[in-house]
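Service request form, structural biology core

Requester: graduate student, group of Dr. S.
Request type: structure prediction, single chain
Budget code: on file
Notes: please return the result as structure tokens.

Sequence provided:
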Amino acid sequence: MANRSVPDVEVVIVGGGVVGLSCAHELAARGRRVAVLERRSRFGDETSTHNSGVLHAGIYYPTGSRRARLCVAGRRLLAARLAEWRVPHRIGGKLIVAVEDAELPELRRLQKQGLENGVEELPLIDGAAARRREPNVRAVAALHSPRTGVFDVAEYLHALAGRAQRLGALLVADAEVAAVDINAAVITTRTTRKGAIRGRRLINAAGLRADEVARLCGDARHTIHPNRGEYAAVIPRRTSLINELVYPVPEDVSIGVHFTRTVDGELWLGPDARWIADKSDYETNRRPAVDFLPAAQRLCPALAAEDLRLGPSGIRPKRSGPGAPQLDFFIEPQPDEPRILHLIGIESPGLTASPAIALMAADWAARSER
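Core staff response, request fulfilled:
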């Protein structure tokens, strides 16, 4: 009979998206015995792959916030990793476009904030310079972010998972967590289909389900408010209208409906932002693609309704609900149980920030031993 007071691993990570896998990779690289429990049959099958695959620079987030600091640090780490691991990517830059003079003060504010955040290059260019980069875009001025890019998220996750496994991490799919039992010696995480695993520490990186996992750990402070973002796709023969990435001056809930030229050369328009009740509902009552046309034509007047088709969708794991102020990433140990670290509300730019989040988690694991 197994000794219930002896851990199977040092750290159990709940959630096998890009954040959980990044934590596993970093911990395993430091010689830690680590296991990742993922409720789905494939790793990264929710928020991590339901997005446009943008490598963000760190412009939009309040200076000093975790989102800003971790995005800037994560971009440097991730850009180097994409090149080293030969993951398909393109650092082609993006424009944040003011289409009228009234938007210029906000564009200047974004430039100031981005530079204060540590973004390395962020020139404000005039309309003529913007049109030289994007001839079909309407602009009186634009911020040019040359270090923004796109990458193949699925390929990156495959490489990340494989490297974590080669370093000794145990990755377990179809392992939805049903209970977390805590005692002085170990934390036992019980799954619905794959049995139980004992660890000295637990990292909650469960994304859309992070609030539910927190409650299983005895922490009822958190609520995830799912917010769906939908895309339209531009038909192949019209994708040449946009060369790289073109964004508007941002809105309140999201950074606005924008154009993304993916690493595969597709052209997406979106995402929008819609509050939903079901964390798994990617498709009910989808917006018609033509609904994106007004926002699209404001940036690119040459686009027509017949150029648009329905695109993919994703769901943001937001900490704040409708009408509430935007909240920062939550990355904190549980107050009554410092052996548990909760990573909650890791929405955009969580993909870019993931390597830096993993460094924080690995440092926490080291400190918690003392």
